[in-house]
Automatic annotation (TrEMBL):
It catalyses: Endohydrolysis of (1->4)-alpha-D-glucosidic linkages in polysaccharides containing three or more (1->4)-alpha-linked D-glucose units. Residues 11-357 form the Glycosyl hydrolase family 13 catalytic domain. It is an enzyme of class 3 (hydrolase). SMART domains: Aamy (SM00642), Aamy_C (SM00632). This is Alpha-amylase. Residues 367-451 form the Alpha-amylase C-terminal domain. Keywords: Calcium, Carbohydrate metabolism, Glycosidase, Hydrolase, Metal-binding, Signal. CDD domains: AmyAc_bac_euk_AmyA. It comes from Pseudoalteromonas obscura. Its cofactor is Ca(2+).
Amino acid sequence: SHVMATPSSTSTFVHLFEWSWADIANECEAFLGPQGFKAVQISPPNEHIAGEQWWTRYQPVSYELTSRGGNRAQFIDMIKRCKAQGIDIYVDAVINHMAHGNGISIAGKTYGNKQYPIYEPKDFHKPCAIKSEDYVNDAWRVQNCELVGLHDLDTDSPRVQTTIAGYLNELVKLGVAGFRLDASKHMPAKDIAAILKQLQHSPLIFQEVIDQGGEAITADTYLNNGMVTEFKYSVKLSHVFKKGRLASLKGFEKDWDLMPSDKAIVFTDNHDNQRGHGGAGDIVTFQDGKLYELANVFMLTYPYGYPKVMSSYNFNGDTDAGGPTEQVHQSDKLNCNDQLWQCEHRKPYITGAMRFRAQTGKSQSIQHWWDNDKNQIAFSRGDLGFVAINRGSQVMNVTLQTGLPAGVYCDELSRTSANDCSGKTVSIARDGKANIALKPMDALAIHRFAQVN
Ligand code: LM2
Ligand code: CA
């Protein structure tokens, strides 16, 4: 039976959206392992419909490991090479539904009339379409009807539950350490519980439930099964960074009515809402440049939830567009640039904030909160670290209590690696106070384990 795996408070993971298995293996070795990320969320590895759009991955034809990400051998190689770097793999498991209509899969198989290599018509709910008003007033329809025409599996049936559990168990046997359960809101929590009960190990589970309030189905129903995506965080954090006041972030966990920290998966943006799909709003994304980096700095340095860094590609306004055809890692170059893969996780401030979280995770307390009532804030992580963010248009120049012992500290965000002190430094006096100077749209994060001797 299922025992819940929980992440450590020092951990951060990254969604390498639409990256191939070969690229992910290379990234684990070249960057993620050496920098200290905990895990990668990969795009769905199951056999899916043919087509160029990114969302073909969300239309399963079978649970065979043939996808745009690569084949089974490449999948296994990725897991091994990432594991050797200390990096876990989280699979995006699409288990609420199968592909819409009739067609051909990426592996050349045909499907149609609810006939798939692993399912037959009796494994599905009677067809009905989820209408937008159902989300507000009809929980049954949200879970038993079809989401955008995707044939809805009868997740209440023992045969379907065993088939899904078989898929997840197979992945765990290959070394997969966690699952994002896609479209969890569209499955009754008790069906998910019955599937998880059949798992032979304890992978980390996080359920994708879009709950921004006001709907018939609420995220809290799912907390007994594992972690849950906290969409309120993404929307509200985006709002504050784009058009609010950073000072209003003081005590946000209570103000925003969020789920408990140890249940929450948090993110600035995700693969859906960054392009106007699932639960979109006015979301902060890579297109916001420095503002986006500062939002990530806040997410990563503040002790709430298990943070997921989004790693995207330029889609030039085409919200259906698949990823670049160029691989990220080519023999002579790295295709991380404005036109192709965005590699947000490699932006120095984002990577640096991830390292800060790894170093300060032992202290969950926020102390010495300071703000100027506008867009300059600062806080300490107990006596382990101190953060300041200036999203304002004025220079920040203020003497603050840091809660840290006297010394000269290296800023984790602006140094080029964890072994040098090439960026800003902060001098803390005997009384714990320091002069904090930041240009507009800048931040710093210092901690006990990066000091000038
Ligand atoms: C999810 N979470 O609950 C994913 O995060 C989201 O990306 C998925 O939608 C969705 N649930 C189903 O797994 C994406 C995409 C949709 C796309 C579906 C299926 O956002 O636009 O729908 O995947 O590929 C597409 C078409 C839609 C069509 C449907 C069926 O956009 O117009 O509906 O395929 O052919 C007839
Ligand atoms: Ca369903």
